[in-house]
Design a protein that fits this description.
Aminoglycoside 3'-phosphotransferase, Chain: A, domain 2; 5-stranded antiparallel sheet; about 350 residues; Phosphorylase Kinase, domain 1; 2 domains; two-stranded antiparallel ribbon
Amino acid sequence: MIDHAVLPSPGPVGPRARASPALIALARSRWDLGDISAIDDLGGSYNLNLRLVTGRGTVVLRVYRPWVTPERLASVRSVREGLRRHGLPVPPLVPSDSGEPAIALGGRLLEVEPWQPDDGGTDRPARWLAAAGSLGALQTALRAIGSPRAFVPPPVHNAPSPPVFDDWLGRTVAAIAAAPATRESGVALDACRVAGQLGTQIRQIPRPALPRQLVHGDYGHENVRFRGDVPSLIVDFDFLGVADRIADLADLAFSPHWMGSFGQTHLAPPGRDWGAVSRLVQRHDATSDRPLTREEIAALPLAMASVPVNWIAAAWLQADPVAAVALVAPELDTAAWLVHHRRELAELWLGGR
């Protein structure tokens, strides 16, 4: 089984792509889109995602970073197709005029999928819990699919090994140091120092080996879309790869605190509703063919604490590393609190198991 946690830093990084007349003309021609009446940038930290209102309907044009190879995209496409066969709400791809799902432009790969309207992401408690239920079903399907033959791991992901973490954090510090000296850059440098200390502390805490499998890699936040409180779409499989199974749940569990939802971030960590994570675990297990083990639940506080720490290490890949680190810096206190109180939280979330 391929383990993406040991991979070195990516190859050609390249900035996030920009919309251009040449890009739009190529997409319109190769996908026979007809007249394009509106173009909206949907955001995305790494890829350019454009919503195009066209003569063939509304579609999403995705332009990948240069590090995404045809072989890697084929691996992701194979898994996405498998998930659709298992009934998961993963959008299909629209083939180009040559029948290929992706084409190249200037060292970057392009693909198109239908636009599916939604009401938002995991931006309220009911949706947060519903996303946990979808995660249990998603991971069950990913286990059934397994790693496709010749699976290519992601060159960038959210669970770097210690050497990769140290390398990335050093690159982020260098990028911030090279930026103009401002109050924000000073905060970012301090945050990098704290993240490095926390990263070292987390990896020095003994833990048993945990179940590993294919995981989404960036579950929750804006990557689970809803109609009402029902998940209608799971998107962004950029980080799809083999990791600890709880990585996706940790991402989802930390999201209301990191993203500022649910009125939690104005509270000090001890005053937050940590009991809600128990409900998250229960919703996950209700749809999973393999409920979380005691060891996984006990490791969940450390996995959650790693979310902002790893994000800071990877900030050198962002267009503005200073802003990327400053966004997450306030949650390092939460990460430290999670590490310090990991045993009490594990007891709370185990709930007598």
